[in-house]
Amino acid sequence: MDPSDTPRSSPAQPAPETICARPNLLPGSSSTPLVPAPQLSVVYRFEGLDHVDAVYQGQADGFVYARDGHPNASALAARIAALEGAEAAAVCGSGMAASAAVLLSELGSGDHIAFAEQLYGKTISLIDRELRRFGIEATGFDATRPESLAAVLRDRTRLVMVETLSNPLLRLPDLPVLAAMANKAGAKLVVDHTFAPLLCRPLELGASYVVHSGTKLIGGHSDLTLGLVAGTHEEMDRVRRLASTFGLSGNPFESWLACRGLATLPLRSSRCCATALELAERLTRSSAIRAVHYPGLPDHPDHERARTLLHGGFGAIVTIDLGDRHRADTFIRNLGQIPFAPSLGDVATTLSHPATTSHRGQEPGLLDRLGITPGLIRLSIGLEDPADLAADLEQALATLS
Ligand SMILES: Cc1ncc(COP(=O)(O)O)c(C=O)c1O
């Protein structure tokens, strides 16, 4: 008999290909793991049609397909909802995905959104460039002047969007006043809370949605990209449906990493805020710096509001103005231990140059109005010893004179 005729497998003795291809389940255990596992499966298996019907109809617990939901997103969302005092939360693939999911779930052709001119540059591009292509009207306003919002509200204004602490000058809008104005006009306030997790709860101040780039302080280690949204059950059902349809959902491993980041967020936040305040005060004494922007300093234009609205600190970000691009570049090049890495919220201190990174490509008039000059450096303060950080900054400042 030709060897190829020999049956290579029987049900009792599968061929190597079959053994390798089929996953075996983890062994059962009467004890439960202390640490929840990342559940990387893209898809879930069912006993039959009644079972899949029951899961789709919400009559049985379970997941079907990871883009629609998975255990790690549910675990992370539950913690975010609890932190924000929200009914529910949703996990998206990035901070931009989270904002896009909110905007796309609320706005349709002919609707209007009022957006703070202080928003992150890409969020402005999303609203003012991309959404416009779908017939959504948008008008910018100065989030630090409620009268500026009053001037742009319209009958069809559905959303008003601001950031808790703006990038890079750390302006803090009067959230309760803006929320009341938006609600009176029949609109919902969306707050991007990326720069200030834990420092206040925007939903308690009147916002309808709070969004985060989980990539920053919540993740905390510059090793994940994720976005989070919190709001009502109904709003989050819509956001999750939309995120699945547009492909904006967050993945399991990064959701798992973000849960790990959350474990130390309160400790990191209070330590970074304390160091940021100490450094900000110290930097005001440097003759090489034209201005220090930090809401914890008494001369910051929103200091009094920050004392009322924020609890536990004034944030981890300190922005300094070195006067011009050349001095900013010299400072960056001479700061060996603090990398120029255009993000924020890492355990280690990093710095960014807003004019060439986060606000790159914005119209020059807007940068002038916002005071984003070529000399601005944004420091994201990490967990290092404050004296070491001060020494690093001061030696680089000394090279400017
Ligand atoms: C305030 C703010 N919101 C949203 C985003 C977007 O977040 P992501 O990079 O996770 O999409 C950023 C990114 O820098 C940001 O600074």
Describe the protein:
- It is globular and about 80 Å long.
- It has a 7-stranded mixed β-sheet, with helices on both faces.
- Helix 7 (175-184) links the parallel strand 4 (157-163) and strand 5 (188-192).
- The relative contact order is 0.12.
- It has helices spanning 16-21, 49-56, 71-84, 95-106, 121-130, 146-150, 175-184, 233-246, 252-283, 303-309, 325-334, 364-370, 386-398; strands at residues 88-92, 112-116, 137-141, 157-163, 188-192, 209-213, 227-231, 291-293, 317-321, 350-352, 376-380.
- Helix content is 37%, strand content 13%.
- It is built from 13 helices and 11 strands.
- It is of the alpha/beta class.
- The protein has a domain at 265-398: Aspartate Aminotransferase, domain 1 (Alpha-Beta Complex), CATH 3.90.1150.
- The chain binds pyridoxal-5'-phosphate (PLP).
- Pyridoxal-5'-phosphate (PLP) is lined by residues 94-96, 120, 123, 163, 167, 192, 194-195, 213, 215, 225, 227.
- The site of pyridoxal-5'-phosphate has 14 residues, from helix 4.
Describe the global form. Answer: globular
What helical percentage do the residues reach?
25-40%
Mean pLDDT: 95
**Can you summarize the main beta sheet?**
7 strands, mixed
Q: What is the distance, rounded to the nearest whole angstrom, between the alpha carbons of the first and last residues?
A: 91 Å
Number of strands: 11
Short description:
This protein is α/β, with parallel strands linked by helices and 401 residues long. It has 13 helices and 11 strands. α3 packs parallel to α9, α4 (95-106) packs parallel to α5 and α9 (252-283) packs across α13.
